Amino acid sequence: TLDVDVATARAWLQAAATSMDDHADHLSALDAAIGDGDHGTNMRRGFSAVADKLAAAEPATAGELLTLTGRTLISTVGGASGPLYGSIFRAAGKRLAEPTADLAEALRDGLEAVQKLGGAQPGDKTIVDAYTPAVDALAAAVADGADPAGAARAAATAADEGAQATIPLLARKGRASYLGERSIGHQDPGATSTALIFAALADTLEA
Ligand code: ADP
Ligand code: MG
Ligand code: MG
């Protein structure tokens, strides 16, 4: 199982906030090619608000912390990505409230939630294209007996490969889908930010 305590969850979200700040220009440049150029500023605003909330609040459990993260993203990010990432973290937080649930299962619930909300399937050139291989790799690594850091690194690598694999895809959801064939040849910004979130988890568990 992949058990994370509240301090580890806090360190993960703080690392994610730093990463969104560091990569905001890159994420917005990706979004400028196939969207409206704001994905980096959206993610930076949302995760900076999460970091502020976490500095002020003392969630007692990792589940409460992820739920607070989800609520904060929904209320602070104007773009499509706010409700989408919000649904992921809220679903993961809800699952972690169950005594036997681990982070691998919780993140799997996040995938179900984002697909229910946004209707995207793998191959539609969205968050789902990085997130699906990441949770699959995480579950496989945990089943193989990998330690938490190793399992998270496998997930991060799979997420990054999934994000890169969006380049040849035609966008079928979100703003990029308005471009039709012209969306081909560009890496999806949301899949890229998802890979950064899994990389932040691996970095945190390795530290
Ligand atoms: P907006 O498109 O409102 O400006 P962002 O730029 O912050 O929002 O986010 C764009 C990203 O959101 C896309 O790159 C894509 O990965 C993701 N996205 C859009 N629609 C969906 C959806 N229905 N399901 C999953 N991800 C989606
Ligand atoms: Mg955008
Ligand atoms: Mg926008």
UniProtKB/TrEMBL annotation:
Coiled-coil regions listed: none
PROSITE patterns: DHAL
Record GO biological process: glycerol catabolic process
This protein's UniProt keywords: Kinase, Transferase
EC number: 2.7.1.-
Domain DhaL: 7-203
Gene Ontology CC, one term: cytosol
Alphabetical list of InterPro entries matching this protein: DhaK_L_YcgS, DhaL_dom, DhaL_dom_sf, Dihydroxyacetone_Kinase
The keyword Transmembrane is assigned to this record: no
One function term, GO molecular function aspect: glycerone kinase activity
UniProt keyword Cell membrane present: no
Cross-referenced Gene3D superfamilies: 1.25.40.340
Identification of the protein by name: Dihydroxyacetone kinase-like protein
Source organism (scientific name): Nocardiopsis mwathae
Origin organism lineage: Bacteria, Bacillati, Actinomycetota, Actinomycetes, Streptosporangiales
